[in-house]
Each structure stands twice: as structure tokens, then as C-alpha cells.
Amino acid sequence: MTFTVGVHLERELEKDMNAKLIVQMDGKKTRLLTVKVFSDLGVDVIDSAFEGYNACVFAYGQTGSGKTFTMMGSPECQGLIPRICRQLFSRMAAGKESGSSYRTEVSYLEIYNERVKDLLSGDAGHSLRVREHPKLGPYVQDLSRHLVSDYDDIQECMTRGNQQRTTASTQMNDVSSRSHAIFTLTFVRAGYTRHNNMPCETLSKVHLVDLAGSERADATGATGQRLVEGAHINKSLVTLGSVISALAESSQQADNRTPKTKKNVFIPYRDSVLTWLLKDSLGGNSKTIMIAAISPADCNYGETLSTLRYANRAKNIINKPTINEDPNVKLIRELRDEIDKLRAQITHNTNPVEAEPAVLATLQRKEAQEKVLTEKWTEKWRETQQILQEQKALGLRKSGLGVVLDSDMPHLVGIDDNLLSTGVTLYHLKEGETVIGSEELSPTPDIVLSGAGVLPLHCRVVLREGVATLLPAPGAQCWLNTVLLDGPAKLSQGCILLLGRTNMFRYNDPAEAAKLRQEGSASVMNLTWNLK
Ligand SMILES: Nc1ncnc2c1ncn2[C@@H]1O[C@H](COP(=O)(O)OP(=O)(O)OP(=O)(O)O)[C@@H](O)[C@H]1O
After folding, report:
1. Closest C-alpha to ligand 1, atom 11
2. Residue positions forming the annotated binding site
3. Nearest to residue 270, comparing CAs of 243, 237, 297, 290?
4. Alpha-carbon distances of 106 from 208, 211, 292, 387, rounded to whole Å
5. Are both 302 and 392 inside the same structural domain?
6. How many structural domains is the chain composed of?
7. Is the shortest distance between the CB of 212 and ligand 1 below 6 Å?
8. Based on the domain organization, do 433 and 469 belong to the same domain?
9. Residue 229 burial class via C-beta count within 10 angstroms: exposed 0-12, middle 13-18, buried 19 and up
10. Residue 62 Cβ contacting ligand 1 at under 6 Å
11. 268-307 pLDDT, tens digit each
12. Is the predicted ipTM greater than 0.95, yes or no?
């Protein structure tokens, strides 16, 4: 039997939709033109984040069908997660130019054998508890969240998390994911609208989920640990299936115009950690996309059919996404609306004359309220941006087993002579004056020291145009490179300070150090110290 397949765009509907030809037939050859998954789905996710909607993408399919390849990809061919992150940051860069500000945090977890593990904490072996907040819904207690300010930061998180993820070799896939992984971006966008200078602040949560693959034990040849993992994976995927079916049924009922036939559909979110954590994404306030990954092989016919049935049911779910606006910003907008109406009322003088003083008084009250709220919001956002800049300046990053602090601000690093102390202390010096003393001083000094010989006001460090000068308080013991100071002294890169009898610090000035490195004189300076 022969089939003839004609491929051409002829239906008016297809033409009206500007559809493109993606299947070409040439004799017995069939050519499928590349379908651009990122432009189709990824861009929607980024748009949603910028508009303040929650979004979720999850890849579902049997083991080895390409879920991880679709979501994460490889260094040569990036998947949806890195592409979405990259594009998000390039859009942010454009937005910053037009006055918007952003705050992005990342968390990355895996659900392995029904236990949640933080892929970005130093202690990934430790399992975390899932709890439910009455308003905000399910969340993972103590999950680490990482501030990221550019694509490099986020890429570092992805790489670190992927290295921690549980994978194993099975007969179906050399590097099979044995866990569900959820990469979450929490994205805040704030600024002022151009046309009426209104504060605006929205928050969006974007979950990017790479599910573990469904598998048949006979096909994967799993035994022992792999079999246990497979059982957990399958159980949570069955629950996901039940949740999807129940939600689809509930959505169809909501569409049904005869309310008498409606019954409450129970959604078994809590039957698995995966569905519990994705509760809002699956059936609530989120724009959610399911990617069905299927195998083209005939031997996987049954699994492929099952995946397509899953996807078909998921299609019927109707979510109710809403823009997550900051409550204060919403209040300011409502107040401004009221103020506009009151002003119009006074201008058009539609009310009886005796009502006017009352209207005026209300107007003044609302204006004062609006002013205070706007000022508070502006101050809060300014502080957030300052903290972000300071954290970026602090630049904590992991390097192999070590942690490196890339600070570009002048700072003091504590050198502790207490054998039992284990922490590392770093104090940034701010532009202007940094007050150093004990906690007896009021107001509290910027740097609080304790120990023998520390006066309430011990000294001040004045930083102006990159030059730091230490000014000892009268009678205070301030030693600079073993010399007791009797007046102001300029601090230079690498010098050692002893304040009181026990507080020792090294002063670092990254700008000065970079200059010295360029001049090649760092080695000379080191030698000088050693000789002293
Ligand atoms: N579109 C593709 N192009 C090239 N290689 C692909 C593609 N999709 C998947 N692969 C390759 O197929 C193998 C299996 O893919 P992947 O690990 O993404 O499957 P998976 O569905 O995540 O499996 P599991 O559920 O077992 O984790 C990998 O080696 C991957 O590089």
C-alpha cells in the first residue's frame, strides 16, 4: 500500500494565520524544518515575567526522550532555561536604560525519592521540609535563594546545581535524571510609568521544571537502587496525571452552564511532593506550559501514546493568572484615582456648594496619604537597589573548594587571634566617615568592637576620592604596621591595623591594588613588609 502526502498551505485559515511551512516532501524524503521552541515558548515566559505574571514550563515524557536536553541543553546547544535567563537579562539591560530597576533571585531544588534537596547549598545531602503558607501557598523551608545580577551569576548557579543533581546510567539513557528538578526565578520589576509617573512594582515567579522520565522497569532493566528511584518517579508522575485529570475535569465543569450538575472535584496535590510544590503552577495563578517529549521509535509506541494522552488532558486545564502587583503600589494607584475624581468634582463643581469644604478636606487627606506612601515606596526601592549594588560589590563566589570575595570597595578584613573563632569578618568602608568604637557609644558606631583597650569612640576612617585616612580618638591605641599613631594616618593596600589590644585588621583597597599590580610593584611592596 502506498500513501501520497501532499504538503502545501492552502486553507484560508492557515494563510490568515501567516503559517509557515515546516514539512517538506521531496519524493520519498520528508524534511522537517527546525521548529524554534524558544521563540515559541521561551519568549512567552519572558513576556509574562515582565508583565508580573507567574509562569511555569515543565517537560514531561518517558526516560531518554529529551526532557533535560530541551530544558537545559548542552554547552553547544543551549536549552530553554539558559536561553530564557540570557534573554531575561538582555531585556533587563534595555529596561534599565529607560529607568526600570530589577531584582532577580534564583533557587534550584531537586525532588529525589520524595525528598527535597537544595542544589545550591553547600549541604545538598540534607533534605528540606515542604510547608504551606496560608496565603502564599506551599514552599520549601530554608531553601537557599541567590541574588543574581547578570547572566554569568545565573549560569554559575545552573552549573553548580546541575553538578549536584542526581543522575545515573540506565539502559534507556546514559545520563538519566533520577529526580525532578525545579529551577525558580523570582523576578521583581519596579520603576515609574512614563505617562503619569506612577510607581509600579510587580513580582513574578518562574518555575522551569525538568521532570524525571516515566519508565517501565522491564525496559530500563532497573534493579536495586535504580528500581526504588523508578518506583518513586512513577508514583509522583501518576499523581501528576491524577492532578491534571482532576483539574481538567474541574475546568470543564466551570465552563458548564448548568450549575446543578457541578460537583466539587478533589485535587490530590498533597499525594506527591512534586504536585504539592507546583500546586499554583498546575491549577492556579500561573501561565503554565507543558512540553511533551516523545520518542520517535516504534518500540516506545505505548509510552508515546500515554504522554500524548497526558498532554491532551493538560490542554483542558484553565488557569487564572493575575498580575502580582505590590500592595502598596496598588494602594497608591487607587488613591491617585480617587484624587483625580475629587479634583474633577471640585473643578466641575457638580456638587452642592455646602459639600465643597468636605470634599476639599477629603482631597487634602488623600493627597497627604498618597504622598507618604509614595515616599515610603521610593525609599524602600532605593534601599533595595543599594543593597543589590553592595552585594554585587561584595561579589562572593565559589571557586573549587574555596569561597572568593571579589570586593571592589575599600574594606577591613578581621585577623582574629582567638583560636576558637571560626568566622571571617569583613567591614566595608563607606564614602565619607566610618565610626569605629564600642557598643557604649550612642548612636551605635558603624563598626562595633569589643575587647581590651577599645574606647566608646575609638577612631574614624574617612574615605574621600579613594583615599582612606584613619583618625584616632584622643587616648585611643591605634597601631599601623606596628607603629602607634599619634595623629591622622593614610591607609594603604595591605597595611595592618591593631585597634585596642586585640582587634587586628588588614586594610584592602582593590583600586590601589589593581594600580600597583599594573605598575608591577606589588612584589616590591611585599618584600618591604617582610623586611619590616
Ligand atoms: N533534540 C535532540 N538532539 C540531539 N540530541 C538529543 C536531543 N534530545 C535528546 N538528545 C540526547 O538524547 C539523550 C537523552 O536525552 P535526555 O537526557 O535529555 O532525556 P530525558 O528525557 O531527560 O531522560 P531522563 O528522563 O532519563 O532523564 C541525551 O544524550 C541527549 O543529549
Report:
1. 66
2. 61-68
3. 243
4. 11, 18, 25, 17
5. no
6. 3
7. yes
8. yes
9. buried
10. no
11. 999 999 999 999 888 888 999 999 998 888 888 988 998 9
12. yes
**Binding site membership of 213 for ligand 1 (Cβ less than 6 Å):** yes
Q: Which of 280, 314, 348 is the last residue of a domain?
A: 314
From the CB of 294, is ligand 1 less than 6 Å away? no
Ligand 1 atom nearest to 61, measured from its CA: 21
Residue nearest to atom 12 of ligand 1 (CA): 66
pLDDT of res. 196 = 75
Asked if residue 448 and residue 347 are part of one domain, the reply reads: no
**Whether 255 and 291 share a structural domain:** yes
Q: Do 461 and 343 sit in the same domain of this protein?
A: no
| Ligand 1 atom 9 nearest Cα | 66
Report which ligand 1 atom has the smallest distance to the Cα of 70. 18
Tens-place pLDDT, residues 32-65: 776 688 888 899 999 999 999 999 999 998 888 8
Residue 293, ligand 1, Cβ within 6 A: yes
Cα(174) to ligand 1 centroid in Å equals: 9
495 domain residue, yes or no = yes
Q: Is 214 in the pocket of ligand 1 (CB under 6 A)?
A: no
Q: Where in the sequence is the domain holding 191, given as residue range(s)?
A: 37-314
pLDDT tens-place string over residues 224-264:
666 777 777 778 888 888 888 888 888 777 666 555 555 67
Report whether 450 contacts 436 (CB < 8 A): no
Q: How far apart are CA 448 and CA 436, in angstroms?
A: 6
Mutate to test the pocket of ligand 1, among 69, 171, 240 (most ligand atoms within 8 A of CB): 69
Is 224 in the same domain as 250? yes
Burial class (CB in 10 A: 0-12, 13-18, 19+), 41: middle
CA distance 25 to 34: 15
Q: What is the CATH number of the domain that holds 51?
A: 3.40.850.10
Strand-pair partners of 480: 483, 497
Residue 52 domain-assigned? yes
Q: 396, 417, 438 — which closes off a domain?
A: 396
Helix (H) or strand (E) holding 344: helix 327-348
Find out whether the beta carbon of 151 lies less than 6 Å from any atom of ligand 1: no
Please identify, by atom number, the ligand 1 atom nearest to the C-alpha of residue 210. 22
Same domain for 165 and 96? yes
Q: Ligand 1 in contact with 192 (CB < 6 A)?
A: no
If one compares 22 and 341, the residue with the highest pLDDT of the two is: 341
pLDDT value for 466: 87
Residues 360 and 240 placed together within one structural domain of the fold: no
